[in-house]
Write a structure and sequence with these properties.
The protein is α/β, with parallel strands linked by helices and 403 residues long. It is built from 17 helices and 10 strands. The strands form 3 sheets. A 6-stranded mixed β-sheet has the order 3-2-4-7-6-8, with helices on both faces. The chain has a two-stranded antiparallel sheet with strand order 1-10. A two-stranded antiparallel sheet has the order 5-9. Helix 5 packs antiparallel against helix 7, helix 7 packs across helix 10 and helix 14 packs across helix 16. This is Capsule polysaccharide biosynthesis protein.
């Protein structure tokens, strides 16, 4: 089987990927034109993403990701990139208005400070958008390999299934938030959003969120050492900083363990019975699982070009196998930045630096094979691999905002 120009699918992967049956033939400019418009919501099949300064300022490698989502998913899906530039189409507060009472004043009044303004602006939008309109949130750093219908939406939209959401599970009742799928009006999503927005009340930065009374429930969770064994991110900041940065994920965990005596809301039951789960390490960070969590290593491998006869064939073969494995077996690859969190630069940071220096992935690099292959090929498996997770004895019998 021939693949992209100059590449043949290795025998190991020939039964796992095939050329896409109905490839999207639109040019980049055609898709960019659509992304630049305000398109009214007509269904729940919406792909939401965010870049604070807008589409024009999106790094090229992220722009390729977003363009390719439109190609990997069919025309029944609408991609929208939300931003914080008033007066331009897809301005955030035109989609989630102050009257919705879903956003804290730090977002509405644009008073957020600190090194993570962009990241936490996205955090405050992602769940609100899905709750209000339905659809899927993807971070712009996501390279998508499986179309969203097969990944989750066929299940979520089927009246024969109980599922309302799909998330990428990391450990216990915690998930990654680069990918969130959900049906419009899902109660779990609303609880999650209201809790996270409440944490930001009277704040302009995430500093100290770890000490908020509504975050203290984590202290009573049973210990879990598996996450440190699976996710070996090279953090170089205190644990409290990580908890501050990932507060939205802690909020998910609280809702997933919550049983409210007064309202009858049972987040624990919803977590186990109504939320589809994919394994984040297998489906989203498979590259790190295969070669480790050093961004420079991944950057170097993906930047390789087809070697000459006397070059390091073994190293190139390792890198090419990595790409074919991702194209065949992962739902997506979330490219991390780890801004001011990691001891060594993450792949996203290195790609940003390469762009600023005037470089880019050449026409024959493995990074380009990964990017173009995500569009050219589709996986043979008909859906992602869903997992069941352990039911913990731990439960929070409190109100959502009860300390």
């Amino acid at each position: 089987m021939s693949g992209l120009a100059g590449y043949d699918v290795p025998p190991l992967y020939k039964d796992k990927i095939t050329p896409r049956q109905q490839p999207d033939t639109r040019s980049d400019s055609e898709i960019l034109s659509e992304l630049s418009k305000h398109v009214e919501v007509t269904s729940e099949k919406n792909i939401w993403c965010f870049w604070d300064s807008g589409l024009e300022n999106l790094p090229n490698w992220c722009r390729h990701n977003v363009l390719n989502w439109a190609r990997v998913c069919d025309s029944t899906w609408t991609v929208r990139l939300i931003h914080k530039v008033p007066g331009k189409p897809n301005y955030a507060l035109d989609w989630i208005t102050p009257d919705d009472n879903l956003l804290p004043s730090a977002f509405v009044d644009n008073t957020m400070t600190g090194p993570y303004v962009g990241q936490h602006s996205a955090d405050l939008l992602r769940v609100a958008l899905i709750w209000k309109y339905g659809g899927v949130w993807l971070d712009v750093g996501v390279i998508l390999f499986m179309d969203l219908d097969r990944l989750c939406w066929n299940r979520l939209s089927s009246p024969e299934n109980p599922y309302e959401m799909c998330t990428a599970w990391s450990n216990q009742t915690f998930v990654a938030n680069h990918f969130i799928a959900g049906r419009k009006g899902t109660e779990f999503l609303l609880k999650w959003q209201l809790l996270f927005s409440h944490l930001w009340k009277d704040r302009t930065s995430c500093d100290g969120l770890f000490g908020h009374p509504l975050m203290q429930w984590r202290m009573h969770m049973p210990p879990d050492h598996s996450i440190a064994l699976k996710f070996k991110w090279p953090f170089n900041v205190p644990l409290t900083t990580i908890v501050d940065y990932t507060a939205q994920i802690s909020c998910f965990g609280r809702v997933a363990n919550l049983q409210e005596p007064d309202s009858g809301f049972d987040g624990k039951n919803i977590w186990h019975e109504k939320i589809l789960k994919i394994d984040a390490i297998d489906e989203c960070w498979r590259a790190e699982k295969l070669i480790g969590f050093n961004g420079q290593d991944l950057f170097d491998l993906l930047n390789l070009r087809k070697p000459s006869a006397d070059a390091d064939q073994e190293r190139y073969q390792k890198a090419e196998n990595l790409v074919w494995d991702l194209l065949s077996n992962a739902s997506m690859q979330k490219v991390a930045h780890g801004k001011k969190l990691f001891a060594t630069p993450a792949l996203g940071t290195l790609w940003d630096e390469m762009e600023r220096e005037g470089g880019g992935s050449g026409e024959d690099t493995l990074a380009k094979l990964l990017r173009d292959g995500s569009v050219y090929f589709e996986q043979s498996r008909r859906e992602a691999e869903y997992i069941e997770v352990e039911k913990l004895d731990f439960v929070l019998r409190k109100g959502l905002l009860e300390e």
